[in-house]
């Protein structure tokens, strides 16, 4: 039963987007080793049809074939990545537009293509990556609900939506999970997303839970071609100011004898039982490091200190949505 499957996975997932070269290259054999390790550890695997234009879903199929564990895979549709497809253009805070499509015909085609690439009979969790402003929300959600009725999809989710859209969609079909950027680096979800997610009893799946690596303290200079060059938080004065604020967080990690990544993940987990961070890494041992955050309990005093260093809106620079 898909609901039971969602409850069986750990509250720490794995974000597979990083295997597609966004933050540096990763060869397929390393990617395979990492994915099998994540599946073996019962972590939700997060992908999207657009990651590597289908390559990421193909990698995950191969990893599932190699693992003896029953994987839980969440994928997304809506970002148009095939030349023969069209959609509505949306702007982002990272300076580039995206073309998205949420029409009934597009949802149906995207689901069938993801099923093929993943080599499964059912997608465990299907998100609308972004809502299409050119298509009524009702059309997109009811097309997703049809895929559930046909047995092609287990649960549905939303990503990068507004708080009121979560309740609206949930009236059409139960929304099991909402994916949104959430970390000490970006806490705006606390304003309208978290109340809406909690209001419908869904999971909050946090993308960029390590602030796209920033909160780990390992990002000093980005290579040309690194996708984070688009992100204003990693640019010029913003980056300098953000790096200063990070120092306080690094000091707390050091005093607790945990890594900065573990502190960032433990803080997220302390925000609610329904929180699932999905950190991405191209390094197998970091999966274990990140999983160990599940066993870290932060004291009220530490949580208060982190709150004062990184309140909502503290870090500089626009965000994706
Ligand atoms: N719905 C959406 O619109 C959306 C948007 C963005 C991302 N996502 C999903 O969310 C996932 C996670 O977000 P993200 O990849 O942007 O950011 P993230 O998970 O916050 O950070 C990933 C970065 O952190 C580094 N890292 C991971 N664990 C580490 C550790 N223990 N110590 C030091 N560095 C560590 C990785 O570097 P190494 O590879 O060198 O370890 C990588 O560069 C993505 O992979 C994707 O699946 C969804």
What's a quick, concise take on this entry?
This protein has 321 residues and is of the alpha/beta class.
For the largest beta-sheet, the strand count, sense and barrel status come to:
8 strands, parallel
DSSP summary: helix tally: 11
Helical residue percent band? 40-55%
CATH superfamily: NADP-dependent oxidoreductase domain
Distance between the termini: 33 Å
> In terms of structural class, how would the helical and strand content be classed?
alpha/beta
Mean pLDDT: 97
Kindly report the CATH topology.
TIM Barrel
CATH class: Alpha Beta
The strand line-up of the biggest sheet is 1-2-3-6-7-8-9-10
CATH architecture: Alpha-Beta Barrel
Give the percentage of residues in beta strands. 5-15%
Radius of gyration: 19 Å
> What is the total number of structural domains?
1
N-to-C SSE series?
Answer: HEHEHEEEHEHEHEHEHHEHH
Number of strands: 10
Small molecules bound in the structure, each named once: NADP nicotinamide-adenine-dinucleotide phosphate
pLDDT < 50 runs, ≥5 residues: none
Large-scale geometry? globular
- Assembly status: single chain
């Amino acid at each position: 039963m898909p609901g039971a499957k969602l409850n069986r996975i750990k509250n720490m997932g794995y974000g597979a987007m990083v295997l597609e070269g966004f933050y540096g290259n990763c060869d397929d054999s390393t990617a395979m080793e990492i994915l099998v390790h994540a599946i073996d550890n019962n972590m939700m695997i997060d992908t999207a049809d657009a990651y590597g234009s289908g390559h990421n879903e193909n990698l995950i199929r191969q990893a599932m074939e190699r693992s003896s564990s029953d994987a839980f895979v969440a994928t997304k549709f809506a970002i148009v990545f095939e030349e023969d497809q069209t959609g509505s253009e949306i702007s982002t805070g990272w300076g580039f537009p995206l073309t998205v499509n949420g029409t009934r015909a597009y949802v149906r085609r995207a689901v069938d293509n993801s099923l093929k690439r993943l080599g499964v009979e059912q997608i465990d969790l299907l998100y609308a990556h972004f809502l299409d402003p050119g298509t009524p929300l009702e059309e997109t959600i009811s097309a997703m609900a049809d895929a559930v009725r046909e047995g092609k999809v287990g649960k549905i989710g939303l990503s990068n939506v507004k708080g009121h859209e979560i309740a609206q969609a949930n009236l059409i079909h139960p929304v099991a999970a909402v994916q949104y950027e959430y970390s000490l680096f970006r806490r705006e979800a606390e304003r309208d997303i978290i109340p809406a997610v909690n209001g419908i009893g869904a999971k909050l799946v946090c993308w960029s839970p390590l602030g796209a690596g920033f909160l780990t303290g390992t990002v000093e200079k980005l290579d040309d071609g690194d996708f984070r060059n688009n992100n204003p938080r990693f640019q010029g004065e913003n980056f300098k100011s953000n790096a200063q604020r990070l120092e306080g967080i690094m000091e707390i990690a050091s005093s607790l004898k945990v890594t900065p990544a573990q502190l960032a993940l433990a803080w997220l987990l302390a925000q609610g039982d329904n929180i699932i961070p999905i950190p991405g890494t191209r390094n197998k041992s970091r999966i274990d490091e990140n999983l160990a955050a599940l066993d870290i309990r932060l004291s009220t005093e530490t949580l208060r200190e982190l709150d004062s260093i990184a309140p909502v809106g503290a870090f500089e620079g626009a965000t994706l949505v």
